[in-house]
Design a protein that fits this description.
Layout: E1 2-6, H1 15-30, E2 38-45, E3 62-69, H2 76-93, E4 101-106, H3 110-121, E5 126-130, H4 134-142, H5 147-165, E6 171-173, H6 176-184, E7 193-194, H7 201-207, E8 220-227, H8 238-244, E9 249-256, H9 260-269, E10 275-279, H10 283-292, E11 295-299, H11 313-320, E12 324-327, H12 330-339, E13 343-345, H13 351-362, H14 366-369, H15 378-382, H16 384-396
C-alpha cells in the first residue's frame, strides 16, 4: 500500500492537482501485482462541502481521504492555518494506515513536511516530490520587507529540508533549475530525479494534429491563462500594456489569485477597454480561447527565485502551436529556447519590449511562426503519461 500526501487534487483546478491525479492513475496501472491499494490525503475548503460529491473514475483500490480546511482565501495567515489543520488531521488519521511507502508532493513545503514527519515517526520509507523552492520564495517574495528575519527563516527551512531530504528514498524535482540551486546549498543530489509536469493528454488530443492557420480578424487577442499572484506580476503591467497595445488588439485574462480583484479595479479605474479579465474556467472551455487567440503570454515576476522554475503552463502552450511571448529569465528561458522555436522573450515586467515583441510577431508571416513539433522530440520527451510512467516505475521498484 502507498499513502500519497497531495494538498491539491481534483476537483481543484491547478497544475499540481492534475499532475497528482495522473500520477495516482499511473501508479495503479503500472503495478505488476493484482491490486495496489493507494490512499490519497488531500484538502478542500469547508465552503465546498455542500457541493455535490466529486466522484473519481478510478480503480476501486484507491481511497481518497479529504481533509476539510477552514479557509479558501489566499492570505498568508489563512494558508498557515489551513496547513496546520491539514498536518494535524493527516497525522491523526494516518495512524489507521500501515503503508509500505509514503509519497509527498508539495509546492509550499507544508505537504512534504506532513509526509516526512508521519513517515519518520512511523519508520516508513518515503519519497518527496518538490514542485517549488518554498524557502527561497519566502525570503525573496513573501518576507522581502522583513530584513531581520527573512534570512533566518530561509536558513531554518533549508536545514529542515536537508534533514528530511537526507532520509528520503529519493527526491524528485520538476525543474533542473532546482537541482542546480540545491547543489549550491550543499545538498547531496546524486540520487535525485527530474520528472517535470509535462504535457497534459487533453492538450495532446486537442492540438497534436491541429492545423493552426492564420486568420484575418478585426480583433486580435493576446491570451494569459493562469495564476494572478505575486509570482506573475500581471497587475504591474496592465495599465501600461493597455496604453501601448497595437490597435484592434485585446489582452484577455483568465485566472484567479491574490491580484484578481486588483486587476478588475484597475480596469474600471482607468477604463482599460482593451483589457478583459474573467475567472478561471475549466480546461475544455479554455481550448476555444487557445485556438482563437493570436499570441499566448507567459509571465513571471522579476524575482531571482523565479529564475529556477519551469512554468507548468509552458508545456501546455508549446503544443498549441501559436506564438508565445514569455517574460522569463534564467533556467526557464534556457529550457524554453532549447525546446521550441516559436517563442519570443522579454525581460519580466518590461512592457516596452513586450510591445516590441507583439509588433514583431504581428509582422511575421504566420506560417513562419509555427514550430513543427512532430519533427522535434519535445512531445515524445515531455508527454505527461510518458514522464509519469517512468516516475511510477521508479517509485514502485521500492515495493518489490
Amino acid at each position: 500500500m502507498i499513502s500519497i500526501y497531495t494538498y491539491f487534487f481534483p476537483p481543484k483546478l491547478s497544475p499540481g492537482s492534475f499532475r497528482s491525479f495522473e500520477l495516482v492513475k499511473s501508479l495503479v496501472y503500472s503495478y505488476s501485482g493484482k491490486k495496489l491499494p493507494v490512499t490519497v490525503f488531500t484538502a478542500r475548503p469547508l465552503s465546498e462541502r455542500k457541493e455535490s460529491k466529486f466522484k473519481l473514475r478510478l480503480n476501486k483500490s484507491i481511497n481518497i481521504v479529504t481533509i476539510w480546511v477552514p479557509f479558501s482565501n489566499e492570505s498568508i495567515l489563512k494558508n498557515i492555518l489551513n496547513a496546520l489543520v491539514y498536518f494535524f488531521s493527516c497525522w491523526m488519521i494516518s495512524k489507521n494506515y500501515k503503508p509500505k511507502i509514503i509519497f509527498g508532493t508539495s509546492g509550499r513545503f507544508a505537504t512534504n513536511f506532513t509526509a516526512s514527519v508521519i513517515a519518520i515517526q512511523s519508520s516508513t520509507p518515503f519519497i518527496l516530490d518538490v514542485r517549488d523552492l518554498f524557502h527561497l520564495n519566502l525570503r525573496e517574495i513573501i518576507l522581502r520587507k522583513y530584513f531581520i528575519i527573512k534570512d533566518f527563516i530561509f536558513w531554518f527551512f533549508l536545514k529542515l529540508e536537508k534533514y528530511f531530504f537526507s532520509r528520503a528514498l529519493f527526491i524528485n524535482v520538476v525543474s533542473e533549475g532546482f537541482l542546480q540551486f540545491y547543489k549550491k546549498q550543499g545538498f547531496n543530489t546524486q540520487n535525485w530525479t527530474f520528472f517535470p509536469n509535462g504535457i497534459d493528454d487533453l492538450f495532446l488530443r486537442e492540438f497534436e494534429n491541429h492545423q493552426t492557420l492564420g486568420q484575418k480578424k478585426k480583433i486580435k487577442y493576446i491570451l494569459y491563462a493562469g495564476n494572478l499572484g505575486e509570482g506573475q506580476g500581471i497587475e504591474k503591467m496592465i495599465v501600461s500594456l493597455s496604453k501601448n497595445l497595437p490597435k484592434n488588439w485585446v489582452f484577455k485574462i483568465f485566472g484567479k489569485g491574490k491580484y484578481y480583484r486588483s486587476i478588475k479595479k484597475l480596469i474600471q479605474k482607468f477604463s482599460l477597454n482593451n483589457i478583459q479579465i474573467s475567472k478561471q474556467i475549466e480546461r475544455h472551455k479554455l481550448m476555444y480561447w487557445y485556438k482563437n487567440s493570436d499570441i499566448l503570454l507567459i509571465s513571471l515576476n522579476n524575482y531571482n527565485c523565479l529564475e529556477h522554475v519551469i512554468p507548468s503552463k509552458f508545456f501546455e502552450l508549446a503544443v498549441v502551436g501559436k506564438p508565445i511571448i514569455a517574460g522569463v529569465n534564467g533556467y526557464a528561458k534556457n529550457f524554453m529556447r532549447k525546446n521550441i522555436s516559436n517563442i519570443y522573450f522579454f525581460p519580466p515586467l518590461n512592457v516596452r519590449i513586450l510591445i516590441n515583441k507583439i509588433n514583431k510577431v504581428t509582422n511575421i508571416k504566420y506560417s513562419d511562426q509555427l514550430n513543427d513539433l512532430k519533427k522535434s522530440n519535445f512531445i515524445n520527451n515531455y508527454k505527461r503519461d510518458f514522464i509519469l510512467n517512468k516516475f511510477s516505475i521508479r517509485i514502485l521498484k521500492y515495493l518489490n
